[in-house]
Design a protein that fits this description.
heterodimer; A: 2 helices; B: about 180 residues; two-stranded antiparallel ribbon
């Protein structure tokens, strides 16, 4: 059993999901890679932004 | 100059395309040259002839085989189509996500008591053989007891949904809907 922090779980989730999205949603390897990086960045950055918004709301 | 010499008997091409035609008759052409006597070479044409890409005929064989194989085992649909790199990445991602979900003590849905359980069960079924193997070997948790178990449950469900997307992608490659 592994104990992961929320952020670590988000990073792994984003890595796996963006890999599948990149391969399945684009046609050429270059565009697959670019779309995968794009999805990964959006996953992680949106999680960070939403976390800060929730933190500020809770105060 | 070329059109001026034969204004009525030669076809009217755009200047760029006409300049790329290579007449078989050497210049200077005789004044009695007609369209029928002109032989054109296709070398250097603006629009080269269309070549079909080599590959499996989309109409041959059982087209749903990559879809079913991809559902049963992550990446197998792409392996059948000889997309080794894509299949390996898909398998690593989906199996890794499923394994992390199990390692975080995620819950495997076994039945449908309410609507949320039903949705989770459908998501788990997307992993194909991994779901049935986890049921046979009693992997995963029946109840979420730790904090990370909730994350793990979502990892397992999303792994199944991603596997469905990958299997449909293999089917699209097989039918030619997505270029290879």
């Amino acid at each position: 059993m592994i104990h992961t922090s929320h952020f670590t779980a988000v990073v792994f989730f984003a890595l796996f999901a963006s890999t599948v999205f990149g391969i399945t949603q684009r046609e050429t390897p270059r565009r697959m890679f670019r779309y995968g990086v794009y999805c990964f960045t959006l996953f992680v950055s949106s999680a960070i932004v939403i976390s800060w918004v929730m933190f500020l709301i809770a105060r | 100059m070329y059109e001026r010499a034969h204004p009525a008997s030669t076809p009217r091409f755009p200047p760029l395309a006409a300049a790329q035609f290579i007449p078989a008759v050497p210049f200077p052409a005789p004044c009695s040259l007609t369209t029928a006597s002109m032989l054109y070479s296709q070398k250097g044409m603006a629009t080269p002839p269309v070549k079909t890409a080599p590959g499996p005929n989309p109409q041959q064989g059982f087209v749903y085989l990559p879809l079913i194989a991809g559902w049963l085992f992550p990446g197998a649909g792409h392996f059948l189509l000889r997309k080794w790199g894509r299949g390996a990445l898909l398998a690593a991602s989906i199996i890794g996500m499923f394994a992390m979900g199990l390692a975080m003590k995620g819950k495997i849905y076994t039945g449908a008591q309410d609507i949320l359980d039903m949705l989770g069960f459908v998501g788990d079924l997307g992993t194909g053989l991994l779901f049935f193997l986890s049921r046979v070997f009693s992997l995963g948790a029946d109840q979420v007891q730790v904090t990370t178990g909730d994350y793990g449950t979502k990892f397992i469900v999303v792994a199944g949904l991603l596997n469905v997307i990958a299997a449909v992608d293999a089917h699209n490659l097989r039918t030619g809907r997505k270029p290879q």
